Amino acid sequence: MSYKVGIVGATGAVGQELIDLLHDREFPMESLTLLASSRSAGKTITRGDKTWTVAEVTPEAFDNLDIAIFSAGGGTSLALCLEAAKRGCVAIDNSSAFRMEADVPLVVPEINAEAMRGHKGIIANPNCSTAVALMGLYPLHEAFGLKRFFAATYQAASGAGASAMAELEAQMRAWAKGEEMVAEKFPHQLAVNLFPHVDKFLDNGYTKEEMKMLNECRKIMSLPGLRASTTCVRVPVLRAHSIAINAEFERPVDVAKAREAVAAFAGAEICDEPAENRYPMPIDFSGKEKCGVGRLRIDTAFDNGLSLWVVGDQLWKGAALNAVQIAEALVEMDAVAPA
Fold first, then answer.
1. Best CATH choice for the domain 130-314 from the list 3.40.50.2000, 3.30.360.10, 3.30.1370.110, 3.10.180.10
2. pTM exceeds cut of 0.85
């Protein structure tokens, strides 16, 4: 069986990755419709010998679609995901609009694909840092029982879209020439700099991005009592997020068993030979399906604690790849149609 698929936000950085991944992974598509705002309608996108004309996204655009992957921001998702679902089209949403809704599954397929059974037409994709962090944390949770964790993220420009990546590239060129560096997408110059500010600040002193890590991990892993504290940092890297994690577990930990658990997990690969200067880096995990996990060691501050370092492609596992994997799992479950 093949499906009529749409991409909302097709002209953005994640939209471009979605087009490639759907084709490269041979998703069973009868047709592919590219949708965007009125500003981008009429543009053409070419991949190999195929060319699409981008259409304006309207409620009627979902009438003849089976699956629509949304990557156009929370406002668009709030306005149109419910419309898509009403018209019999499953909305896979990359924004934060529906993640914490009780009746909307928040899914990382390697962890909780079963949560999609009985869905009501909308399935949420987690935040990029959450998805990447869980590729290291979840197999360790299965092995030892996760109790709490601290995390510091090192988030690439790709997390803010194609224009942010272009801004960093322009700043690096300007720096090399001794010219003034212009910051428009970010609150500060990102080249040869970093800042602990991703998303909006909340009244509790954390940013929305930092609270997403706690709340989304609780929901995805079905751990309502999980405790976590995160500091999110934007770094001058073009693509792929890195996360330093210190985690405490319910049961005694063992580094060898921890490596075995991560190595056996579908979403991760071990890259942990520090004596050989081998550990996960963004340059090696950009454009890779699996996330890298390394620097596994006994944590010196926690009882039953492990420290680790996780790196994953924000545009892939943090967004487009996870969305495509959700669509693949729906097909495998024969659950494309809402219950």
1. 3.30.360.10
2. yes
Pick the CATH number of 3-126+319-333 from 3.40.50.720, 3.30.420.40, 1.20.1250.20, 2.60.40.10: 3.40.50.720
**Rounded CA separation 169/238 (Å):** 8
Residues identified as active-site: 128, 241
What pLDDT shows up at residue 338? 67
C-alpha distances out from residue 8 to 23, 96, 210, 245, Å: 17, 15, 26, 33
Read off the pLDDT of each residue in 285-306 and give the average, rounded to a whole number: 97
What is the DSSP annotation of 103-157?
Answer: TS-B--HHHHGGGGTT--SEEEPPPHHHHHHHHHHHHHHHHH-EEEEEEEEEE-G
* Identity of residue 34: L
195 Cβ contact list (under 8 Å, min separation 6): 186, 187, 188, 233, 234
The string of pLDDT tens digits covering residues 242-266 is 999 999 999 999 999 999 999 999 9
pLDDT score of 337 = 78
